[in-house]
Amino acid sequence: MDSNSISEPKSNGVKKGGARIIVDDNDEGLSPTDLSEMLAEGTKESHDRAENCQFVKDFLRGHIIKDVFKRATVALYFVYSAMEEEIEKNKDHPHIAPIYFPAELHRREALARDLEYFYGADWESQISLSAGTKPYVDRIHEVGEADPVLLVAHSYTRYMGDLSGGQILKKVAQRALKLPASGEGLNFYQFEGITSHRGFKQLYRSRMNELELDPEAKQRIVDESNRAFGFNMMVFSELEEIGNTIKEEVQEQVSGHAELIQEDDFNKCPYYAAKMAANGNPTYALQLVKTLVGRLPCQVALAAWVAIFAGFTAWYLL
Known about the structure:
- By secondary structure, the chain is mainly α.
- The protein has 2 domains: 35-256, Up-down Bundle (Heme Oxygenase, Chain A); 270-316, no CATH class.
- Helices cover 66% and strands 0% of the residues.
- Helix 2 runs parallel beside helix 11, helix 8 (151-163) packs across helix 11 (215-268) and helix 12 (270-278) packs antiparallel against helix 13 (282-295).
- The longest helix has 54 residues, at 215-268.
- The radius of gyration is 30 Å and the shape is globular.
């Protein structure tokens, strides 16, 4: 046999000690009826809507408010706590056991470290489940209790996204928020038990495709995945509203502070007020008059006002 015709098996990306299944490096053997393909095709529109919501677009541009990022981390903590609690309860379920990778995937502990970084040692007393996140968490507990096979949808939607686009978000957040290069505040995005994200995703999809599911069950998983995308967009919308509120509050504070500074600057330098008044701003014109009057002796100020009034009267009569 020609040794050149033998290809080396590819690693599944799991570090030593984890599950070892050799996965082909291409998708040629996939069928449209495989669960992974049905999910990819059936959630395409939901995925596009999630990517194009304003919160995500702003995030990708690096327009990130630190307080909003902290709140997003809180939301993720509650979502993953619920999901991983239900996965643990159902780890021996025939549809959950094949995709049970706690050492490689579970994020709750990583998120707890991030929250400690952002909020301090007493972080648990400072966070709470938000109104926008609660329906998501409730739904995860509901399916975990009544219909565990649907946990496949929630697991796929979150973990596969974290191993894909989540890595881009990590880099953007690190730059925008100037977070430490050592990874504090970004533990959520670091999968220390996985050496190759691509290899592991192939492993995970192959495990999903091996689940014994009839067409109806597969479609229910696709539907639940679309529902999970909807829950994520609810969280995004809530975070966007919080961000807008913070921006408005900051703008009001900045404007008020600017007015105080400007008034003080006018008193110190009326030439600044004159320059701004020349640009057509009546507020500065009024401030200029007040400043000049304040600096003139009472008699000169009175004479100046009389002269100004007389000039306007003469102009009007002419």
